[in-house]
Amino acid sequence: MGKARDRTEDFKDAVRHTARSLGYDEAKLASVMASFIIHKPPQKSPFSKAALKTLESIGELDQFLLKHRKDYTDLHRTTEKERDSIEHEVLILSERLHSVTAQFDQLRAVRFQDAINKAIPRRKLNRVARNDSAETSKSSDMELREPEELRAEPLRVQQQLLDDETRALQVELTSLLDTVQETETKMVEMSALNHLMSTHVLHQAQQIEHLYDQAVEATNNVELGNKELSQAIQRNSSSRTFLLLFLFVLTFSILFLDWYS
Amino acid sequence: MSLNLRQKQTECIARMLNLNQPLNAAGTANEEVYKILIYDKFCQNILSPLIHVKDLRKHGVTLYFLIDKDRKPVHDVPAVYFVQPNQPNVQRIVSDASKSLYQSLHLNFSTSIPRPLLEDLATGTLNSDSIQRVSKVHDQYLEFVTLEDNLFSLAHKPCYVQLNDPSAGDKEIEELVDKIVGGLFCVLATLAVVPVIRCPRGGPAEMVASALDQRIRDHLLSKNNLFTEGGNFVSSFQRPVLCIFDRNFELPVAIQHDFRYRPLVHDVLGLKLNRLSVQGEKGGMRSYELDSADSFWVANGSLEFPEVAVEIETQLNKYKKDVDEVNKRTGGTHGAEFDGTDLIGNTKHLMNAVNSLPELTERKQVIDKHTNIATVLLGEIKERSLDSYAKKENDMMVRGGIERADLLGVLKGKGTKMDKLRFAIIYLISSETINQSEVEAVEAALRESEVDTAAFQYVKKIKSLNVSLASANSASRSNIVDWAEKLYGQSISAVTAGVKNLLSNDRQLALARTVEALIEGRPNPETDSYLSFDPRAPKSGSGASSSHMKGPFKEAIVFMIGGGNYVEYCSLQELAQHQQPAKHIIYGTTEMLTGVDFVEQLTLLGQKMGLGNVGSSSTPAQ
Is B601 left (phi over 0), alpha (psi -120 to 50) or beta? Predict the structure, then answer.
């Protein structure tokens, strides 16, 4: 088994060496090295605390299942009532987790809707910006007309070419920006739809589980029906035997009476 | 101890993701359960064949980013860095620490970080007063890409050009050798073995072997070295042999067209990091993953392409039969007859069908994947006559020559420019003597096809300067062919052709034959002159060869400097399986190359030497 080499001590040594070369005095150096040994306790946000607590609860649930696994599977250790109790607790927790997930998906859907709404005003702002840029170009044209009269013809042609190029570049960049924003909107919608689909997949998982339970119940019913049929067949056989015996005895009775008289 | 490189590297990565603590078997929750993974481009290539996104979730990694991307602060979660030790990455880490993006930083470098960089890291974090953010610093020794259980690549590019560049100075060559040695050291550290090193005399192979031997010796002398784990007792008895070769040892393998499934997929469709993109049925690009989880790929990767097509057909028929059986058992063909036992059977069959559906779906996906890949491959084969190229090149390598009409006919027929150039180079290498008029005719034919002949002329030049190419290739030719050619004339050419066909099917790569001799330790005129390095032996006795170093080995690591491909990998795996008892061979290289990639490097070398078309600025179109 290959293993990684811990270079933290080398790093501390490099820190010590560098601190000394930077002119740290002994007290400050000791303070810096102490920050390695005694890490500040992390300031966890309330969300992180809640998340860790939830994880701890899930761990406890896992421990509960492990502890009761043997009880659940062994027929002699528990009664049906205790088994139902275990199943009841676990199913309650499972459904509660599902409901929490559904709430979370709704919240994320709201967030994605906000993101989509934010994308649309950006387009309006873009149109306003485009109008402003058009006005600016017009005013710049008006300003340039007076100096053009004072200059020579080739310079004017060159400037016109530059203006044309600038305008074409501006149009190209504007269309590119529109395309990028459209792509962004589609990506956000796709993400929201993907999450919605995952919620539906969870719902389908529940339905499939329900179907499975019904199939198991149907199997049990069919077994019971077969048992009843077997009993009916046995009773039919028994009645046939009795009928045969009755006819046999009757025949011998008639023969006996004929012989006696 | 069986060497499984992929498994060992995956274990090391899992431990790294667990903040270098031992993995708990129960997986109990602790305070450091959520973390963020940050990697650079190179380490992303290391991770992607081994770890999937759902595996990352299992190890508690909720977010993963490239280090160069702008990242938002997540204040109460530790970050796991997995980056190469270089200056831009160190500066980026210092920037992250100064911005207090994460609660703590667990730094993992892909190989050993040198002392100056460590001091730069210390200086930066001291200046920004964020020294307390750095929690741990580790050297991981994982700087190689493991593609399959027995296949790795150092992902250095383009290695062959740098090694053979006539204008390269000693300093550049030494830097390159150090880089290769560093990568090989990472592989050995991950496997935790100290091998016996064998290599041919002279050239890059000897430089790498000598430097690696010295590196391992220095490391064994230091405290807490990486090789003590696993027990010295076991490792002293079952040490592997590390065979180091240079690309010039067997140049045609890198250029030749091959017709086995795995080499064909890599060469024609461009398999990269076990991932493949092909044109789908409806025009869109489809991406497939071909790794050890794909049982069809594992079982059939080294078959010839027609056999693979037959196997796909067989699997499809088996799948259809299973599906029909499931449908029959759960269908309504006997529904009209009411019977108790049939009802029980129906319900149980229904449950069995529901349970077997995931397996059937998975099999169907695998069959569809390989059907699509085979269809695209078949299109390329027909369009470029790859089967003809493979057969003719194989004939040239075996027989040592080709008819002039055949030669020029191929160069004027189907195939891309690169295919023709590769064919011409194989012709050049397989000929014992250079026929000047034929070579000029070949060059003229290449120019007619607008092929840049720089690579061709480069190979011609090194062939005239270096007879070792010819000797390596002539050794691979069977003696019986020479004997047949000398003793029999034209009257029994049919018998000779039949014998040649048999021999060509059984032809072994020179690399595989040499590795076999090194593993067995038998006296061999080729390998007796090879150098031996034993890092565990005393330095003064390195010249003397003990019997232990030449004994038979159970395991081998074969490393090719300057680029390798799946052809060599398949040949070595076949060799390992045919040995009795079975051997275990790991194949590694500086870079996995297709034939086109390698010929492009040859073209670069030719242009650097001033060969090729004068004033030609067009690159060969693929």
Answer: alpha
CA distance A85 to A91: 10
Of the candidates A1, A40, A52, which has its C-beta nearest B192's C-beta? Answer: A1
* A2/B224 CB distance under 8 A: no
A32 with B16: Cβ contact below 8 A: no
Q: Check: CATH 3.90.830.10 for B274-329+349-383? A: yes
Confidence of residue B231 (pLDDT cuts 50, 70, 90): very low
Q: In angstroms, what separates the C-alpha of B350 from chain A's closest C-alpha?
A: 9
pLDDT band at A77 (very low <50, low <70, confident <90, very high): low
Quick one: average pLDDT of B257-281?
Answer: 73
Mean pLDDT of B157-173: 74
Q: Residue B235 corresponds to which tokens in the numbers above? A: 């490792």
CATH of domain B147-249+508-603: 3.40.50.1910
End-to-end Cα, chain B, rounded Å = 45
On chain A, the residues whose CB falls within 8 A of the CB of B115 are 10, 14
Q: Where are the domains of chain B?
A: 3-142, 147-249+508-603, 274-329+349-383, 385-472
B618 DSSP 8-state letter: P
How many angstroms away from the CA of A173 is the closest CA of chain B?
Answer: 24
Q: Do domains B147-249+508-603 and B274-329+349-383 have the same CATH topology?
A: no
The kind and range of the H/E element at B516 are helix B510-520
Q: What is the pLDDT of residue B289?
A: 72
Classify residue B236 as exposed, middle or buried by CB count within 10 Å of its CB (0-12, 13-18, 19+): exposed
For B414-418, which contacts have Cβ atoms below 8 Å and span 24 or more sequence positions?
B414/B383, B414/B384, B414/B385, B414/B388, B415/B384, B415/B385, B415/B386, B415/B389, B416/B384, B416/B621, B416/B622, B417/B449, B417/B450, B417/B451, B417/B620, B417/B621, B417/B622, B418/B595, B418/B596, B418/B599, B418/B620, B418/B622
Chain A hits for B20, CB-CB cut-off 8 Å, are 4, 6
**Chain segment A133-164, per-residue pLDDT in tens:** 444 444 444 444 444 444 466 776 877 788 88
Residues of B in contact with A223 (CB under 8 A): 344
Tell me the average pLDDT across B589-617. Answer: 71
Q: How far is it, in rounded angstroms, from Cα B448 to Cα B488? A: 38
Residues of chain A neighbouring B358 (CB-CB closer than 8 A): none
Buried b (16+ CB within 10 A) or exposed e, B2-24: ebbbbebbbbbbebbbbbbeeee
Of the candidates B15, B131, B139, the beta carbon closest to that of A35 is on B131
Q: Which CATH number fits domain B3-142: 3.40.50.2060, 3.30.565.10, 3.40.630.40, 3.50.50.60?
A: 3.40.50.2060
Beta-carbon separation of A11 and B134 below 8 A: yes
Dist. CA B489–CA B253, nearest whole Å: 31
* Tokens read off for A187: 């990506």
pLDDT at residue B493, rounded to an integer: 42
Place of tokens 């030669």: B407
SS3 content of chain B, % helix, strand, coil (to 5): 55, 10, 30
